[in-house]
Design a protein that fits this description.
- By secondary structure, the chain is mainly α.
- It folds into 3 domains: 8-95, Transferase(Phosphotransferase) domain 1 (Transferase(Phosphotransferase), domain 1); 118-175, no CATH class; 177-244, no CATH class.
- 52% of the residues lie in helices and 0% in strands.
- It has 12 helices and no strands.
- It is elongated.
- The protein starts with 7 loop residues before the first helix and ends with a helix.
- The mean pLDDT is 90.
- The chain binds adenosine-5'-triphosphate and magnesium ion (MG).
């Protein structure tokens, strides 16, 4: 999701566990691995209370807050969560009802973190996404492929902006691959491409057998006699194609 995994992913997991405890089902039900990844990245699960109306809204809201997509919107501390759960219970004990109250009032982060959100790049991101939409349209000669170059000095945010299109690509069941021309690997020709395609092989290898088989045929048809040459630089390919 274009961000590091930190302690707040545990809040997400806890939210998913609560969700299953309360509703008897998982937040997302699909057997398609790619779709599942997409759901967790970008799709909101139905509110717990809409699945079972006996679940109090405030409890449903706590679960939703735990499972917020943006880590900044989740609880930031276990104490903040504990306070809200106790508060809900206290109100219930006193009034016999679960009344709504503002969540996260005592949720004070115990460490300093800089939000990982991108600022002021809406226009550039839109350019990338429009290009992606163009080439993702049904195949015609005109929209076969496109190339975009992103330039800028070190640390200006090139990688950060490119990573922003990860989510929409996964949504359309595409593959997002990347490689970097490292300043210390200048002697390896095409190292960026090699890295990117090794990444792609890893992704393909996690797919179902039928799909893998179809990839094997497509790649063999394309590479033919050259397969071994490519395997020499992308060893993972041998797992897909078999010994050449
Ligand atoms: N628009 C932005 N808003 C907030 N943070 C940003 C933004 N752009 C970049 N950053 C942050 O700045 C840091 C450097 O960005 P990034 O790694 O994308 O730079 P880069 O151009 O790829 O650098 P390099 O040339 O070294 O690869 C990252 O931590 C990134 O999250
Ligand atoms: Mg970079």
């Amino acid at each position: 999701m274009n961000r590091l995994v930190d302690w707040r992913s545990d809040f997400y997991s806890l939210g998913a566990s609560f969700y299953e405890l309360l509703t008897g089902q998982l937040p997302f039900t699909t057997n398609d691995l790619m779709e599942l990844v997409y759901c967790h990245l970008a799709k909101e699960p139905p509110q717990a209370t809409t699945i079972n109306t006996e679940i109090p809204i405030v409890i449903s809201n706590i679960v939703a807050k735990l499972m917020a997509k943006n880590a900044e919107d989740r609880y930031q501390s276990a104490l903040g969560l504990k306070h809200d759960l106790e508060q809900a219970y206290l109100i219930y004990k006193e009034t016999g009802e679960f009344t709504n109250f503002e969540l996260g009032k005592r949720d004070i982060p115990d460490r300093f973190t800089i939000p990982e959100k991108l600022y002021g790049r809406e226009c550039e991101i839109k350019t990338l996404l429009t290009a992606f939409d163009r080439i993702a349209k049904p195949f015609t000669e005109l929209n076969r492929s496109e190339m975009i170059l992103v330039a800028g000095y070190s640390g200006v945010g090139k990688t950060a902006i490119i990573n922003e299109i990860h989510r929409p690509i996964v949504q359309k069941k595409g593959y997002f691959i990347k490689g970097k021309y490292d300043q210390f690997q200048r002697n390896i020709p095409l190292s960026g491409f090699v890295q990117a395609f090794r990444d792609l092989m890893q992704q393909l290898l996690s797919e179902k057998d039928a799909q893998l088989h179809s990839w094997k045929n497509k790649i063999l048809a394309e590479l033919g006699e050259q397969s071994q040459v490519i395997i020499d630089v992308i060893p993972e390919l041998e797992e897909i194609l078999g010994k050449q």
